[in-house]
Amino acid sequence: METFTKDLQLAVRMLLKKPGFTLVAVLTLALGIAVNATMFSMVSAFLLRRPPGRDPQRVAVVSSVNPNPAFQADVYPVSAPNYLAWREANHVFADMAAADEDRFVNLTSQGQPEVIRSAAVSLNYFSVLSVTVQLGRTFETGEDQSGRDHVVILSHDLWERRFGSDASSIGRIIRLNREDYTVIGVMPASFHLLGFTPQLWTPLVLTPADQTVAARSNRSLRLFARLKPGVTIEQARAELVTLARRALESFPDTEKGWGAAVRTLPDFLIYGFGIRNGLVVMMTTVGFVLMIACANVAGLLLARAAGRRKELAIRIALGAGRLRIVRQLLTEGLVIALLGGGTGLLLSNWGIHFIRANMNFNEAISAVPLQLDSNVLLFILAVSLLCAVLCGIVPALNASRTDINTNLKDESRATSPSRSQSRLRSVMVTGEIALALFLLIGTGLLLRGISLIEHQNLGFRPDQLLTAGVTLDAARYKNASEQALFVRNLLPRIQQLPGAQGVAAASELPASGPDSVTLRIKNQPDVSANQRLSALHVAVTTEYFRVAGIPLLRGRTFTEMDNPAAPPVVLVNQEFVRRHLHDQDALGQQLRLDSSGATPQWSQIVGVVGNVKTYSEDTHDDPEVYEPFLQRPVSSFSLMVLAGSDPNNLASALRDAVAQVDAELPLARVMSMPTVIERQKAGNPFFTRVLGSFALLALILAAIGIYGLIAYSVGQRTHEIGIRMAMGAGTPSVLRMILWESLKRTAVGAVIGLVLALPLPKIFDAIFYGLHLREPRLYFIVPLAILAVAMLATYIPARRATQIDPMSALRQE
After folding, report:
1. Half-sphere exposure (CA, 13 Å, Cβ side) for 204?
2. How many CB atoms lie within 10 A of CB 127?
3. How far apart are CA 217 and CA 530, in angstroms?
4. Residue 514 Cα to chain centre, angstroms
5. Which pLDDT score is estimated for 664?
6. What is the CA radius of gyration of the chain?
7. Where are the alpha helices (DSSP H) in 19-95?
8. 8-state DSSP, 615
9. 304 contact partners, CB below 8 Å, separation of at least 6
10. Are 82 and 258 in contact (CB under 8 A)?
11. pLDDT of residue 414
C-alpha cells in the first residue's frame, strides 16, 4: 500500500507537469464514459430494475402462443375459459390471478372529465404479486360479483394528480362510466410493472357468458401465477404446454394452432416490452465509442512513454524492476481513468436528464424512472477501471522493455522510434479506423432504414388533421342505435366549428393498427375457421375518405343512404383485390365478415380505395375492408377533423362541441395526426439523432486519434526527415512518403472494418422486425469518408514536417 501511495503521488506530479496532455486524455475518456453511462442508465431502468413485490422470480406469467407467426406471437393474452380451466387443473402454481390490462374508463368526478387507463383484476391479483396498498385495502371475497364490484383502487400517480394526495380519499365515491364507485385503496408509488400503466384497478367480473365456447376466441386476460415451493419455471412451462394441448383436443375449432408460454415475471416484462434489442444496439454503439476513446488515450500514453525512454532507463539502471515500471505507468493510467470517470459522471448526469426529457412519446416509456442510480454508479466505476487497464497496459508493457544501454547512450531527443513502437502505433491507428468504419456503416444502415420508414407514403394525408378518441359507456349508450345517434348529433356540430373543413368518425385512425377480421367471399370454396381469409376492419362515416385524403380508385364511397335499413355494403382496398380477389373486378362481389357480436350477413363491395399502411412504421400493405359506421356502429371510435390551418387550434372548440352533446363524456388523446404518427414511432426520431451523434463522435475521436498518433510519429522522425531533405529529397516527395504510409494503414483498417460490417444487414434484419436494410452505397461512401478524414489528419503534420529547416533538424539533440 505504501508503494502504491508513492506511485500515486508520482503519477499525480507527472500529470500535473503536463496539464495539456492530462486535459486531453481526461476529456477523451470522459466523453466515452459519459455516453456509455447515459445509455447504461436506460439498461438499468428497463432491464435491471427489480419488479415490485416479494420474490418476483417466483412469479410466472402465462401467455397464449398465437399461431400467426407475427412479432412476439408468444406473449398473447389468454381467454377466460382457459384461465378458469388452467387455474383448477395445474399442479405447479400455488395461486393464479388474471388481469385485463387494456381497459379505459371515463372519470367524471374530481375535475374535468378524463379518460383513464384501467385494469380489471381478479381478487387475488395483488396477493399473487405480493404487493400491498399504501392506504386502505385490496379487494375482498365477493367483490368480483356483479352488483358488488363497484370498488376501485387508485394508483399513486392518480391519487396525487386528481385527489391531491388526500388520505380522506379512502371511502370517497367517484364516478366511472357514469356509475358510482367507492375508493378502497391507494397503491404505493413503487408499484409499476414495465409496460403496464393502469391508473386504477377494479374487480374482474366473469359472467356465465365468459365461460362458453364462444368466449374462447376472446383472449384478453394476462395470467400471473406464483410457483409452488420447489417447482421450477421449466416444470411450469411443461405442464401449461400439456394443458394447452388438452384444450386443443377438446376445442379444435377455436384452439387449433394455439399454445401456451410461461416466463418469469422479470423475463416477461423485458421481453414483452420489446426494448432489449434496441438497447443492445445502443450499448454496442457506445461501446465502440469507448474503445476508440481508449485507443486514443493509449496512443497518447504510448507516445508519452516513448518520450520518457531515457528517464525509464535510468530508473531501471538504479534498480527499479520491470514490474515496478509497469505498475507506475498503470497507476498513471488509473489516475487518468478515474479523473475521466468523475468528469464522465457529471456529463452523464446531464445526459440522463436530456434523455429523460425526450422520452415522453408514450405512457409506458414515460412511466419508467430513468435516473443516476447505484447500478449506473457501479458501471461508471467498473468502466473507469477497465479504461485504466485498456489505456495503460500496452504502453506500460512496451515501456518496461526499454533497452537500458541504448537509451542511456542516446542523447538525441528526436531519435526515430523503434520498429516495435512504430508497429504498435500502426496497429492502433488501423484498429481505430476499422472500429470507426464498422460503427459508421452500422449506424448508417439503421439511420437509412428508419429514414425510409419515416418518409414513406402512408396512403393518406396526415397534415391538418386533429384527432380525438371517444369511448361511449354502456350506462347511457346501451345499444348500436344509441351509439349511431350520438355520432349523427355530434358530427354536424363539429362541422360548424370555425376553421373545420371536414369531420369524420372511424373505429380506428388510419395507420394505427386496426383489428383484423376473418371473412368469406361468395362463390369461393368454404374452409375451416382457422384457414379463412382475413383483412383489417374499420367502420367509417361518409366523409372519412375525403377528410383522410384516401383516394377512391373504383366505384363509390359511403353515403347517408347506407344506413341500417339499406343492404349491407363494404369498401375494400387495392391490396384486398390483389391478394384475395386475384386482381379480378371487385365491384359487385359479396363477402361475409365474421365480426364478433353481429349476425354474419353478405355485404356487397361498392368501391375500391387506395392502400393505407397498417402502422406508420410498416413497409408492406395489408388487405383492408371498410364498413359504413351507421351499419356497424361501435362504442369506441376516433374523431378526425380536417382543419384549414394548425389543427391544434381546434382542440378547445372540439371539446366544447362534445360537451354540448354530452357533458360527462371526456375526449382522449386530443392531438394532431402528425403527433399520433410521431408517438407510434416510439422515439425512433430521437434515437436516430442519438445514434447519429454517437457515430459522429466516434468519427471525431478517430480523426483526433489518427492525427495525434501521426503527428507524434512525424515529430519523432524529424531527424530522419532532415537527413532526407539535406540529401536532396524535395517537399513533394517527403509529403508523398508520409501520406502513402498513412494511406496503407487506412486501407488495411478500412478492409478490416468492411469485412466486419458485411453481415450487419442480416443481423439487423434478425434483430429488428420488419426493418429490411439494403444500402450497398454505404459500403463505398463510408470508406471514402474515412479515407478523406485520415488523409486530412495526416496531411497537417506531414505538411508541417516538410517546412522544417534541414540543418536545424540535423543539429537537434
Report:
1. 24
2. 16
3. 11
4. 22
5. 85
6. 34
7. 19-43, 80-89
8. B
9. 18, 21, 395
10. no
11. 43
Cβ neighbours of 50 (radius 10 Å): 8
Looking at residue 125, its pLDDT comes to: 96
| pTM value > 0.90 | no
Q: Read off the C-alpha cell for 116.
A: 383513464
For cell 466523453, name the residue. 31
Single-letter amino acid, residue 375: N
Residue 580's closest CA among 510, 526, 529, 520? 520
Alpha helix stretches (DSSP H) within 359-418: 363-366, 374-400, 404-409
Q: What is the mean pLDDT of residues 310-327?
A: 68
CA angle 223, 225, 226 (to 5 degrees): 165
- Name the E strands within 301-384: none
Grid look-up 487497464 returns 389
- Dig out the grid coordinates for 144 from the structure: 368480483
For residues 540 and 633, give the distance between their C-alpha atoms in angstroms, rounded to a whole number: 9
Quick one: average pLDDT of 754-782? 77
| CA distance linking residue 763 with residue 759, whole number of Å | 6
Quick one: which of 267, 337, 365 has its CA closest to 45? Answer: 365
Tell me which amino acid residue 760 is.
L
Mapped to the 3 state alphabet, what secondary structure does 223-237 carry? EEEEECCCCCHHHHH
**Nearest residue to 483 (alpha-carbon basis) of 663, 324, 642, 635:** 635
Q: How far is CA 79 from CA 60, 69, 103, 455, in A?
A: 17, 19, 15, 39
Residues in the chain: 813
Burial environment of residue 476 by CB neighbours within 10 A (0 to 12, 13 to 18, 19 or more): middle
DSSP helix, strand, coil percent of the chain (3-state; round to 5): 55, 15, 30
Long-range (24+ apart) CB contacts under 8 A made by 616-619 are: 616/453, 616/458, 616/511, 616/677, 616/680, 616/681, 617/453, 617/680, 617/681, 617/684, 617/770, 618/511, 618/770, 619/452, 619/453, 619/456, 619/770, 619/772
First to last CA, the chain: 40
Q: Residue 185 forms beta bridges with which residues?
A: 136, 153
C-alpha span between 177 and 171 (Å, rounded): 18
Rounded to an integer, what is the distance from CA 226 to the centroid of its chain? Answer: 30
| 273 contacts 46 by C-beta, under 8 angstroms | yes
The C-alpha atoms of residue 422 and residue 782 are separated, in whole angstroms, by: 27
Over 60: is that where the pLDDT of 301 sits? yes
Cβ count near 749 (within 10 Å): 28
Lowest mean pLDDT, pick from 406-410, 465-469, 765-769, 785-789: 406-410
Taking the C-alpha atoms of 7, 10, 14 and 16 in order, what is their torsion angle to the nearest 10 degrees?
110
- Letter for the amino acid at 303? A
- Most confident listed range (25-34, 530-539, 602-611): 602-611
Which of the 8 DSSP states describes residue 598?
Answer: S
Which residue type is seen at 409?
K
56-70, 415-429, 763-777 — which is least confidently predicted? 415-429
